[in-house]
Write a structure and sequence with these properties.
By secondary structure, the chain is of the alpha/beta class. It folds into two domains: 6-190, Vaccinia Virus protein VP39 (Rossmann fold), CATH 3.40.50; 196-236. The protein contains nine helices and seven strands, in the order ααβαβαβαβαβαββαα. A seven-stranded mixed sheet has the order 3-2-1-4-5-7-6, with helices on both faces. Strand 1, helix 3 (51-62) and strand 2 form a beta-alpha-beta unit. Helix 1 packs antiparallel against helix 3, helix 5 packs parallel to helix 6 (121-131) and helix 6 runs parallel beside helix 7 (154-164). The radius of gyration is 19 Å and the shape is globular. 34% of the residues are buried. Bound molecules: S-adenosylmethionine.
Amino acid sequence: MVKKSLDEVLDIVDSIPEKMCGRPQPLFLYNLSKKTKGTGEIVEIGTCAGHSAIAMSYAQIEKKGRKINTIDIAEHPELENNLKRAGVSEYVKRIVRRSSVVAATWDKPIELLFIDGDHRYNAIVVDIECWSKFVVEGGIMAFHDYPGYNGLNEAWKAVYDKVMSKPEEWRLISDREAGSIIVFEKIRQEDRVNSHWYNPYVPGTMKLGMFGMKVKYIVRNLLWSFEEFREKRKHR
Ligand SMILES: C[S@@+](CC[C@H](N)C(=O)[O-])C[C@H]1O[C@@H](n2cnc3c(N)ncnc32)[C@H](O)[C@@H]1O
């Protein structure tokens, strides 16, 4: 089969119903995948009709990288045809099972983890807890449908509680640049001391920095509860 251009592939993704909130997001995922260095697997939780799987696997085809692993609890009948149309079937390893069940026997390092499965708070927390430990240092963990402070959804809260609250471990590298995808990098051990307001000329600034981050975290959580309370009152 003649290899398709990126534009053609994005057109195919765009033609799949239930669009991924516009063309910039698949393009963004394509770029994330393109930047991988081969230090671990690429794993997606939530395959659905394949928008994101197509974008990420196409980048791997271009760079002769690795197959992406995409996990979904359900079979989506249109998926196979979508992958075929985009010409990426051979670069997509489908796993039809609950993500936490797959994680229980997973043992490979992950360089790019994209979490877009069950969007309820507890489910996202479970996905983060089961999967983030496999992400290599310098690797990426990204989430879809993260609306930010004003959106106040469960993804926001879960990401905030489990990832943003650990600034010593996860560095925010892209905050909804292309819509609702938020991206974190796992900080390398040797860089951890340098994160967050660390000044090498001022001893003790690391501790102050971490303390500051924790205070910021608590304040934002309080603001979040207040906003939620106001929203509820508005809709009473
Ligand atoms: C928002 S859709 C994913 C969209 C997809 N990334 C795309 O670009 O088209 C969420 C998917 O997660 C799947 N899902 C929900 N809970 C899951 C779980 N616990 N484990 C694996 N997949 C799950 C659903 O079946 C659904 O297909």
